[in-house]
Amino acid sequence: MKTKICFLAVTALFLSASAGAQGQTKPIPEIVKKDGRYALMVDGAPYLILGAQCHNSSAWPAMLPKVWRAIENLHANTLEIPVYWEQFEPEPGKYDTSAVDTIIDQAREHKARLVLLWFATWKNGSSHYIPLWAKRQPEKFPRIVGKNGHIVDSPSPHSTAALQADLSAFSAFMRHLKQKDAGRTVIMVQVENEPGTWGSVRDYSPAAEKLFAGPVPQELLKALGTTAPAGATWAAAFGPNADEYFHAWSVARFVGQVAAAGKKEYPLPMYANAALRDPISPGPANTYESGGPTDNVLGIWKAAAPALDVLAPDIYQNDSARYRKALELYARPDNPLLVPETGGRAGYPRLCFAALGRGAIGWSPFGLDYTSYSTEPQGMPRMAEEALAPIVLNYQMLAPIMREAARLNFEGKLQAAAEEQGQARQTLDFGNWKAVVTFGAGGRNNSTNGNPTPIGRALVAKLGENEFLVTAAYGKIDFTPATGAQRDFLRVEEGSYENGAFKPIRIWNGDETDYGGLSFWAAPQALRVLLGTY
Ligand code: DGJ
Questions:
Q1: Fewer CB within 10 Å: C terminus or N terminus of the chain?
Q2: Are 196 and 292 in contact (CB under 8 A)?
Q3: Residue 371: helix, strand or coil by DSSP?
Q4: Does ligand 1 come within 6 angstroms of the Cβ of 314?
Q5: What gap in Å lies between CA 302 and CA 186, rounded to an integer?
Q6: For the residues 195-216, what does the mean pLDDT come to?
Q7: What b-and-e string marks burial along 393-406, b requiring 16 or more CB atoms within 10 Å of the CB?
Q8: Taking residues 165-189, what's their average pLDDT?
């Protein structure tokens, strides 16, 4: 990977040199890995998605003013927005790029990046976004047959015609993106939306039954490292999990082929998003969306769909134990952590920092625009200012240090914390220094009771031996040296980064530093802290 990164740097240099000369191409965004950590590279440097996803029916030109107003109010740097297959290919083989072109042009005007969501064969387990002409051909675009022979409102992953149709449309879409977007406004593409099936663990149609009775593909047995002999059937190899694993393989295979075809045209980073099963006490497969990239089948998805760079959790779990467990399950050595959807309610925003603490490359609440829809009880209760404020605070805190935070996280130098009830004090260990975060403390108040509700968040990154970048809300941060000596604030500067250089606007001293640490309330403040001892 290191070699790849050096090569990348050279390529980036070459590209920026030629961009200077010709006034055009920037490097294609990509996800890179080093020492087990990931970065999303945008314009040749690590980038952190401070995202917002609009509502499902908001990606029409007439709706966009209501979307951009939300992006601006939120201080988000990236809009996640659907592209509808039904709109893109109104007649077979005839492509309408007007909607996506408008979105890209307007994103440039708003200086925002885009993650485009390919709503096609799967949308939340159903197939409601396939074009009208496809809906009128159920023999080519069949739904799943349930165990009792009833038709389930979910596309069968076993139709070659459906695969070819989706794959051709997606290829045309990516081909168009490549030609339209030399400026790299689009930084990632989501392939399908929450693929899988609600209401049946798998397809029981005759075609699926035949495959299910056949052998498990050898590559899957190998990837999972099972002891099943070559040629073993699904039931023999996987026992009670056979139905679910068969469906996961079938869906992932389909999505992976669509992604691979698109990447062949234009290799942007791609991901699939998961409707999670309960991360702590999952029930049986018929209680969640079977076949999607749920935590128990990530290995199957990795083997079946290598063109996908990320398998990403849509986290709507309302209690933080489940939220944190979901982060843990998806931040794997073979999978970058990206939260492409999450709830917008008051308890969620601080957990953006829990995601950052696990190396997330992006975080994005769902349902943020002014089109007057609400996904209550899952999403934003309403677009009221006080409901948005905690997300705005996150992005105001992170935007001025976004590139540095992404880079430092990639380099393993960043730690972050989100407050938990009963855990006001959290320690971030940097070796020669410990950063001690006390949520709820501030000014001359050094209480360890925490905030009345857990809303605190903190980020600390090591810039040098005795130098740190710090931002936080609703808490105090102090440092203790490993030597046991006493900490001295040599210099504390408030400021932000401009083109990679820290620009201080003032020095904190006196009351701001003399009472047991650095205090943060609801103001977005980034500090560069130089420490000494005495
Ligand atoms: C998850 C889906 O991926 C979104 O498109 C949307 O339907 C939300 N659920 C609604 O809560």
A1: C
A2: yes
A3: coil
A4: yes
A5: 24
A6: 98
A7: bbbbbbbbbbbbbb
A8: 98
